[in-house]
Amino acid sequence: MKRSPGVTVPPRGPVRSLVRDLPQAVPFVAPEEIERLRGEAFELRLGANESAFGPSPKALAAAHQELQRTAWYGDPRSHELREVLATLTGWPQDNILVGSGIDDLLGLSVRCTIDPEDVAVASKGTYPTFAYHVTAYGGKLHTVPYNAQFKVDMDSLERAAFRYNARVVYIANPDNPTGTVHSAEAMTDLALRLPSHCTLLLDEAYGDFVQSGELERQTLSENVIRFRTFSKGHALAGLRIGYVLASGRYIEAFEKVRLHFGVNRIAQSAAVASLEDAKHLRAVVDAVAIERDLYSRMLRDLGWTPIPSSTNFISFDVGDASVAADLVGLLAERGVFVRRAGGPPLEGYVRITVGSAKQRRRLKEVLEDACFPGP
Amino acid sequence: MKRSPGVTVPPRGPVRSLVRDLPQAVPFVAPEEIERLRGEAFELRLGANESAFGPSPKALAAAHQELQRTAWYGDPRSHELREVLATLTGWPQDNILVGSGIDDLLGLSVRCTIDPEDVAVASKGTYPTFAYHVTAYGGKLHTVPYNAQFKVDMDSLERAAFRYNARVVYIANPDNPTGTVHSAEAMTDLALRLPSHCTLLLDEAYGDFVQSGELERQTLSENVIRFRTFSKGHALAGLRIGYVLASGRYIEAFEKVRLHFGVNRIAQSAAVASLEDAKHLRAVVDAVAIERDLYSRMLRDLGWTPIPSSTNFISFDVGDASVAADLVGLLAERGVFVRRAGGPPLEGYVRITVGSAKQRRRLKEVLEDACFPGP
Predict the structure, then answer these.
(1) How many angstroms separate the CA atoms of B268 and B254, rounded?
(2) Which residue segments constitute the domains of chain A, with CATH numbers given?
(3) pLDDT per residue as tens digits for the range B179-217
(4) Least CB-packed of A304, B139, B209, B255 within 10 Å?
């Protein structure tokens, strides 16, 4: 760096200015934090899209078993898990990398693709942790609106990618918090249309809930990183494990900077056992589909408009931002944790996890009490 | 960026050049990797300084109990654990941050302090994962030699920090792989002497094994980040959890970029229970001290020179790099996993974890067989 004579550059503090100048922003406030403020635990936890249907008993048994080896670090290559994933997905083992959940792997992907001032493109209103990582690595986020059906607008994303010379395009498919989904073909098509230096980050956190098996038809594209998790359908959010499917250029990059011993061994064992219990996952997905219809009907009966969802959650229109905030607050006072769907264009929406039938019945009582309180 | 007319800047590939141009270097090859190459599991795992004395039964019970809630994300603030840590350490809760082990927190610290081309200083031969993170974030590492007793040379580190305008000085205390230790006063003193923009990263992974309680006397210094783990004395390496003690400037920075939901809830519960079982930790530390003497004596009896250690491992001089490589190979062939102590100046050293008495007896047989094979 050249300095003009006579100009003194003030010494930097110990924290990098890139980090020091970031806003203090947390993507999500945890239910535990709200519980501490309330001084009471929630009765229904329907705000973080956690599974109400539990993990595979085989996954749980494997986790209990593996606790015998807490003293040992986990395998940094998650070899056994990658073997099973390769068989299940048909992807080569070398194109599979395991991390501590999708948030971890999203951060890693942004770190490997976004230089300071580089641009990322995403839908306005989508999963905020992606934006969090982009900002934290010094990137700039450009957003484009959803289409009229609250679906990710592929053409707008493509145009924005070219216009802003984007390094990264992020899509959650199905999307969070709208719950809408695109076909595998639409994704493959978009990947081909993007500039060759641009990476498509394809977050399939909720892909297990797409019953058609639709997403599995997606083929390997050089510039796509697909993200999967054991936190949703597999009900292992508390264990922290997920993976990416990606071409060699990304895997090589990840290997150079990732936390090699970061994935705990209990999660690795549980994930292997969970994959081997395909029946359990199928039962969960079917149960979610049935309950999703019933939760949606209940919301409509109460006068609200849900967005059709392909996931284990439903975002529904309650009118405007202030009604949405009120409803979330009224439910919290009554022991039910849900979240607002986010900022514009979903500021008037509340997002609720599809739980069990029992939770639905209790939720109905609470909703009726909150909205039509007795004398 | 200004471009001269007529000069075309070649378009960058999808991976940032900072990452693309890094070497493919992994700090440690895992025992599982060697087992896959051998086609057989190790009988003795004494290469990663994992505890042979097991976790607290209370920690294990808490982990089993918490597996009921695998579907729920862990508390991103690790509130309960930070409460217990605040009571135990006397540090305010706001100065404690929990992460997925020290490697995770070291990476976070480097990310918050090192701009590309910034300089970090450490002892030549010390824990390689620190260097890995510095390189991965584009920083430059300058190293200074240990002193004649293989102790970290505080004066040399201080001089290098000033000479190279270092942003970060890294010390493991006790050091890994030498096992030597400095007093809390020496650390406090160094922290005060460093430039005000320079951060002292004080890795106390093996601090639990310093029996005098010596390290607890260290006081809060504005420019120090102290790292602690549950992987060693607490025997929870497989669960991935550790924490930092740091002044507000660092905690604020970490909160802006860290993976908020990264710490699994099984680890959080086990860590709380483990801290509450101080008796178990004390018993482990005492057992390690007794066995450390016996392991050292065994190594001396075999003609080698161990470096006096304050940890749960011993590095010992076997002559030169080729003998060290041979010994590690001969032990691996016989089912014993140990590691070389590292590069120069320890290229002629082997590092071995202090295990149980039973493991010591078996190790002795294997060492005698490897070094003095029968006819």
Answers:
(1) 19
(2) 31-52+279-370 (3.90.1150.10), 57-277 (3.40.640.10)
(3) 999 999 899 999 999 999 999 999 999 999 997 766 776
(4) B255
Q: Apex CA B267: angle with CA B262 and CA B270, to 5°?
A: 155
Q: Tell me whether residues B260 and A231 touch, CB distance under 8 A.
A: no
Interface A:B, Cβ pairs < 8 A:
249
Within the 251-290 window of chain A, which residues sit less than 8 Å (CB to CB) from chain B?
252-253, 255-257, 259-267, 270
Q: How confident is the model over A80-116, as pLDDT tens digits?
A: 999 999 999 999 999 999 999 999 999 999 999 999 9
Kindly report, residue by residue over B116-167, the tens digit of the pLDDT: 999 999 999 999 999 999 999 999 999 999 999 999 999 999 999 999 999 9
Answer yes or no: is pLDDT of B76 > 90.
yes
Residue A128 forms contact with B (CB below 8 Å): no
Residues of A in contact with B67 (CB under 8 A): 60, 63-64, 67
* Nearest in space to A165 (alpha carbons), one of A130, A114, A123: A114
- What is the residue type of B359? Q
Q: What is the pTM of this model?
A: 0.95
Distance separating alpha carbons of residues B180 and B126, to the nearest angstrom: 11
- Asked if A240's CB is within 8 angstroms of B262's CB, the reply is yes
pLDDT of the residue at A343: 87
* Inter-chain CB proximity A255 and B24 less than 8 Å: yes
Straight-line distance from the first to the last Cα atom of chain B, in angstroms, rounded to the nearest whole number: 72
Cβ-based neighbours of B260, under 8 Å, separated by 6 or more: A26, A27, A28, A103, B76
B:346-365 residues touching chain A, CB 8 A cutoff: none
H helical segments located in B52-153: 57-66, 79-89, 102-113, 128-136
d(C-alpha A307, C-alpha B253), whole Å: 38
ipTM of this complex: 0.95
- Measured between beta carbons, the chain A residues lying within 8 angstroms of B19 are 111-112, 253, 256-257
Facing B136 at nearest CB: one of A30, A113, A257: A257
Q: What is the dihedral of CA A47, A49, A54, A59, to 10 degrees?
A: -130
Q: Tell me the average pLDDT of chain B.
A: 94
* Residue where the block lists tokens 């769907």: A341
